[in-house]
Amino acid sequence: MVKKIIVLIGIFILLFGSIGFIIEISSYFSSSDYDIFGMVLSVIFIVAGYLVFKFGKNKDKKIDKEKNDIAKLKNKKKNKFHVKIISILGIIFSITNIVIALLIIFSGGVFISSLFGGSESGWGILGFGISFIGILILAYSVLKLTGYIKLFKFKHTGYVLVMIVEIFTAASGVILIFSGYWILFILPFIWSLFVIIYLYRKKTFFRKNI
Description:
The chain has helices at 2-31, 36-113, 121-152, 156-201, 203-209.
């Protein structure tokens, strides 16, 4: 409101000085009556009006710039908050995956022990297969955990790791869901899809701030 009043005052003074200047010029050409004081006063009003007008416009730009800077700062803080929430949830899911992987490895170990207990060798071979799957899940989960921890610290390596892991998870999820295991993999698939879309949309933020 103040900036608009300043601009209007500047315009009014500028117009007042311009009208006075036009009157003085017209008077000079019509009667050769030259009033130096009136001419100088008109010029002073024109200059003063222009300066006041310019001051109001500059203040307007300054306020707009400050508002824009505040909006950018708020957006940056909001993005960082969202990244931290996603990272914390990702860390929790990764730890859960690690626990599941360890249980699978342990189960495989139980079957492998049957080789040394005089049981059928088929159970032991199955145990090796289960343990191998558990080790793969463990390696994947540790990589995922590392990515989310680095993402929580706003490191670019975390952004890259999480994107790679979640793209792999989403691709695997599509295959497993269409294979009939949608009950087990639908939630991880939705989470991975959400993270991929969010990180992709905020890639500019990560380039500038991570």
